[in-house]
Amino acid sequence: QVQLVESGGGSVQAGGSLRLSCAASAYSYASYCLGWFRQAPGKEREGVARIFRYGYTVYADSVKGRFTISQDNTKNTVYLQMNSLKPEDTAMYYCAAGAGRTWLDFTNWGQGTQVTVSS
Length: 119
Description:
Layout lengths: L3 E4 L2 E4 L4 E7 L8 E7 L6 E7 L4 E3 L7 E6 L4 E6 L8 E8 L9 E2 L3 E6 L1
Parallel strand pairs: 2-11
Antiparallel strand pairs: 1-3, 3-8, 4-5, 4-9, 5-6, 7-8, 9-10, 9-11
């Protein structure tokens, strides 16, 4: 069972930046993808970015050019650098692990960290 712990959320003004971290335990080097998802009040959860162990990344169109997902394999940690934040980025952000072939292909979830962007 992979355990995921997110950190780095907070409140920021529009145009600002935040960096989220997700520490994964029992990380399967060979077979796992780590991803970031978000869910705003009254909306469905959506995939934001995911990264495979060999470095391939996938982004949602809404965050391309503003968010960057990266990983530190020595620390079993994945990061989400969020720049040029907009009020519509306000949501609870979750880290997830799984095979990652699609946005639905994730089986382990963290507790989430809140990101609030004010205008």
